[in-house]
Design brief:
By secondary structure, this protein is an all-alpha fold. The chain is built from ten helices and no strands.
Amino acid sequence: MIRFLSYILPVVVAFSLVACRQSTAERRISNGRADSLLLHRVRQRIEDKKRLEELRTELMSSELGRSIAHYKPIIKKYAKRYGFDWRLIAAQIVQESGFQTKARSHVGARGLMQLMPYTAREISQELDIEYIMKNPRENITAGIYHLHKQYRLFSDAPFADRTKLALASYNAGAGRVFDAQDIARYFKLQTNRWINVRPYLAMLKKSDWQLHLQVWPEGRPRHGYFYGYKETINYVESIWATYIDYCKIM
């Protein structure tokens, strides 16, 4: 037994030393990775802070910044009335018209909130305001109200998703969003999450007919084919990104 131990003990000791060295080396590598990750995060925060400070300076000294300040009271008033952060509405107006009061799209949308004539007529009756397409303040009032109507359509969604779905509905029409939700539902995904609905806006084209046959009895989207999905997705993502920045600088 003693002779056996005399043979095995050095092996055990050697193995323990190797294992100890390996463990130490692994800890050093692990600590090095942690330090590198921490350094990367610190640098990223510094870069983000620098970018936001530059954005704040640029915005406050620009015509856009002056326009936001000019219309801020009316935006805040109606944003509060309909339960929105005023900075979200400011971000939406930036995307819609760049705060150009006479902005007009190729399809006829007009004003700061780029409302279509038929939408303006409908809201005019509901709110009893007359000059939505000509008066910037009435255009803002009507636009916020219209966004609120879209927001109410997605009451079961979490705040961020609900807002993004409402923005998509504002841009493309609620029917497009409902159709994309139908496809998400077909694939057994939660239909109240923007990340689930977004990709299916791109599957409402006529060329997606094979999928449509599986989703709808009539073999086509309930609200017609849709080809403006890139614009709508970019619209939502751009507004949300600007809104997040505005929350940090205003």
